[in-house]
Amino acid sequence: MEKMSAEKITNFVKKKQWPPVEGQEYLLGFRGLLVIESFLWTFLITFAPNTVKDATISVDGPGWQIVFRKTLSVLFWNGTLIYSFFIILSARSLAITFFTNPTRSVIASAVVRRGIRLSIPVAVSLAIITTAFASLGTAYIDDFKTFTNNIAFATPYFLRNALVYFNSVYHLFWITGLFFAQSGNYAFPSQMLWIINLIYQQSFTVFILMLIVPYTRPSWRVKMAVPFVLTAWWVQSWAWFTVTGLVFADMVMHMDFKARAKRGIPLPFVAFRLPAWVPAVFVMLAGLTMQYLWTAWKPGMVLDELMYHTDLYANTELHIDVDPSEPQARDDNYLFILGFWVLFEMFDFLQTIFRNPVLIYLGKRSLSEFPVSDGPKNPLLTFPPPPPLTGWFLTQSWIIYVVGIKLFMRLTQGNGASTTAANVACFFVCLIMTIGVGEVFHRLVDYPADAFAHLFYDWLTAEAKEKTETAEK
């Protein structure tokens, strides 16, 4: 046990080798694209909110920023679409190892280690943020917002003592609803830490449902997913996104989805198969059209679709009291992602694009939720993968808020630089620092957290393994 533990610690101190993941590396590459988009969203909503879809703005303009908001923002730095993609991608990736090796030890490892691997990076990141704001205060952020007339983001909440800090971290892995309205999320610059809370809670939906997969009929798993998704949509649960990602993983790994999709969908009464890409493109365009309509034509209608769900905790029939600050599972995002994902899993050329080494590198440094090897003693893929939403995600926001805002104020008020020049300088400084600090965070925090999760699980199950080995002899 001691030798094995020492070997694992040594392996994690060294540069980690990421082996092939059953031909699904393109998922890492796509995650890398989401890394770039999330950085753009965080930076632009801080320094150029008029370019960001759904941002609260006080003065509209200048014109080129409005054009960006109504065109490029919808696809390339759309906050609601980014976190919706992350949620489905998490469910799509999470079950890969269990589907490869559906044993009780794999699922036990998942349940025991997942919270550890997530909580340590989150705790370290919040500690850094709390220490920075204890030293610098948050008044300079208010001064920046006043100077730039920016009302698109909130000043981070300061965790005033160790007990508040502990409770904030603990709640991120305990709360099962109202994910946005918690101190840990309010204290995190950009207030996007709720995504970890949601993905962690939804992972248990994946754990329970994927246990059914090896023992049920493949076609019926897809058929029964439809009413599950519809009922989850009706009660406005994020499970309709999560289950969709899990179903895609099941179809790709167990049902030869790509070949079947290329053969087409059989139609009744005619000897013709409808190409699967036709309904996929239609659904994707429907979601994209809705996005553009709410952005460029009727922004006042953006919340209307959210009312057509049941309200579980009120006396009304529909969900009429929508909180615009609470992130919502939206129809337009879901339709776009559903159509896109069919095409993504269907066509080799799309997957080849996202096997780009740069995108894969970024994917490993951001949402590193992917299977890795457990070393020569266990050639099977480990489960669950390394902590999601680490590296870039847990560093880029506070770099932008601490370094970026401070630099902007120094350049504009101290050196007389124009707003445009200051924004450009801040962009490159924040980008370079995020790359460097994200890599350091990945190696000094992610690796030890992963190693500790392995060691803890090994210690927890050592006695049971010894009894099993003795009985077998």
Descriptive report:
With 473 residues, this protein is mostly helical. 66% of the residues lie in helices and 1% in strands. The protein has helices spanning 2-13, 26-47, 63-70, 72-76, 79-94, 96-100, 104-136, 139-148, 162-171, 183-187, 194-210, 218-234, 239-254, 257-263, 277-297, 331-346, 348-353, 357-364, 392-414, 419-472, and strands at residues 265-266, 273-274. A two-stranded antiparallel ribbon has the order 1-2. Strand 1 and strand 2 form a beta hairpin. Helix 7 (104-136) packs parallel to helix 19 (392-414) and helix 13 runs parallel beside helix 16 (331-346). It is globular. It starts with a helix and ends with a helix.
Give the topology:
Layout: H1 2-13, H2 26-47, H3 63-70, H4 72-76, H5 79-94, H6 96-100, H7 104-136, H8 139-148, H9 162-171, H10 183-187, H11 194-210, H12 218-234, H13 239-254, H14 257-263, E1 265-266, E2 273-274, H15 277-297, H16 331-346, H17 348-353, H18 357-364, H19 392-414, H20 419-472
Antiparallel strand pairs: 1-2
> What sort of overall outline do the alpha carbons produce when their principal axes are compared?
globular
Q: How many angstroms separate the termini?
A: 19 Å
User: How many distinct beta strands?
Assistant: 2
Helix content: 55-70%
String of helices and strands:
HHHHHHHHHHHHHHEEHHHHHH
Mean pLDDT: 85
